[in-house]
Amino acid sequence: MKLVTAIVKPFTIDDVKAALEQAGIHGLTISEVQGYGRQKGHTEVYRGAEYAVDFVPKIRVEVVVDDETADTVVQLVVDAARTGKIGDGKVWVTPVESIVRVRTGEAGDAAI
Amino acid sequence: MLMAASLVLLMTPALALFYGGMTRQKSVLNMMMMSFSAMGVVGVVYVLWGWSMSYGTQDVLGLFANPFEMFGLAGVIGDADNWMVSTLGAYPQVIDVAFQVTFAIITVALISGAIAERVKFGTWLVFVGVWVTLAFFPLAHMVWGGGLLSHSENGLASMIFGTVDDGDGGLTAAVGPVDFAGGTVVHINAGMAALVLVLLIGKRYDFGRTAFRPHSLPLVMLGAGLLWFGWFGFNAGSAFGANGAAGLAWINTTVATAAAMLGWLLTERIRDGHPTSLGAASGVVAGLVAITPAAGSVHPLGAIALGAVSGALCALAVGLKHRFGYDDSLDVVGVHLVAGLWGTIAIGLLATGTFGTAPGVFYSAEGWKLLVVQIVIALAALVFTAIMTAIAYVICRPLGWRITEADEQSGIDGAEHAESAYEASTNALIR
């Protein structure tokens, strides 16, 4: 099993969700996060005083899938979240050791 | 006049919005409370001895009037038959008390913006009472109550250029100082007090390291809009009647403010690349402040020039605190002191010489006299306020001025009021 984590621009989340639903992925977790990559943030000016706003709002998407689906999910997210401009985000895959569905106690692939 | 008084009173809650929006999220309630509590303390103190000290008949050295003469408004607003409502001028005197108390309230509330996010609330309350007594009431007496900075035959203006017959058998200054609605009494006074306090109290602990961004610019815009609305009571009301002078003050207030907003935005566009909403709101206030003393004595074209310069001047002045390293949190000095001084001095240039005031430099060869008078009055007010504010600071010092560094970091709202302005999804259980 794999955990696919994606950091994407907030306005792309609907496209990401739609793409995953179409591919039969029926669960995901999102959170509002802040961070920056190479481009850093932006500057704002208040009464002439310039402030650097380094942390940019992003959405973190987390999906647990079986090993075979992981690459597809990565591709779907990348396609859905790409705008071609700086700050589109990143997607990475990490191995998952075990997983249990709380309601039924099912474990492993059956719990995904 | 009651309408005007009500409008001026509205300015203080409007100021709370204006200042509250400019502070950080963790400090907005304390900032707003500083304005609201000024209404509380001054509202009471004014009736007790404020009116008597400002407008009493027993003058003391031209500086203030006997606070006990009309303590608690005793015996001043009517005789036994028509207590409270005797009409001494165009309207009952008690209405003048109502109008004047609102000026005292907004003046002391203005100061609070300079010392945002770091002062003990209890000390502020005491300071409000002490400062209006030592600085505001005397200055109101000096400028408006017939004291040292007025038209009075014993005033500074009379000492400089002599006196003339006032037509009622008395003497008045040949070149009288002009402060239509409070450039000296309200804005120079509050701005100088703010400067003295920030120098004595010191910077916020993370000044110069952390960005102090306004937490809600819509609140700032709303506050500025309401201030503009209330300012009509402030300036037009200072004509003390529904007359031509009131109309002139209204139109001057509006065009000067409009020009000041444009002046500030243009300065920002050139200097920073963007015209900002905070700049528009600040320009509005800068224009309102600058036209305050001049609203009754300049032509609307003069008001436009006065306002445009004020906007540009204040937009540049707010940068001074970063250059000199004093933490005037919300730019009370940069906006109120600078615009207040500019408006007061600009009268010496732009006064048209109508409505009983002397003409300024642009309207008469003798105009330099008014300019000199205006500068002298402004300087005298600066010195007086600086000394009185320092004394008020010392009187309050035993109470402690600053909250702790830890309280500043966690937010003054929680530390001083046990409240937070916005629901932050922390689970609070009922104990």
From TrEMBL, chain A:
Keywords: Nucleotide-binding, Phosphoprotein, Transcription, Transcription regulation
CC annotations in GO: cytosol
Annotated GO biological process: regulation of nitrogen utilization
Record-level Gene Ontology MF annotations: ATP binding; enzyme regulator activity
Pfam annotation, one family: P-II
Modified positions (O-UMP-tyrosine) in chain numbering: 51
Cross-referenced InterPro entries: N-reg_PII, N-reg_PII-like_a/b, N-reg_PII/ATP_PRibTrfase_C, N-reg_PII_CS, N-reg_PII_urydylation_site
The keyword Nucleus appears for this protein: no
Family: Belongs to the P(II) protein family.
Subunit structure as annotated in this protein's UniProt entry: Homotrimer.
Protein name: Nitrogen regulatory protein P-II
Organism: Dietzia psychralcaliphila
TrEMBL record, chain B:
Family recorded in the similarity comment: Belongs to the ammonia transporter channel (TC 1.A.11.2) family.
Keyword Transmembrane helix recorded: yes
GO cellular component, one term: plasma membrane
Record field: transmembrane: 32-51, 97-116, 123-144, 180-202, 214-234, 246-266, 278-295, 301-320, 332-351, 371-395
Domain Ammonium transporter AmtB-like: from-to ranges: 1-422
Originating organism: Dietzia psychralcaliphila
Gene Ontology terms for molecular function: ammonium channel activity
Protein's membrane topology: Multi-pass membrane protein
Keyword Magnesium: no
Keywords annotated in UniProt: Ammonia transport, Membrane, Transmembrane, Transmembrane helix, Transport
One Pfam family cited in the UniProt record for this chain: Ammonium_transp
Gene3D superfamilies: Ammonium transporter AmtB like domains
Name the record gives this protein: Ammonium transporter
Domain of life: Bacteria
Localization: Cell membrane; Membrane
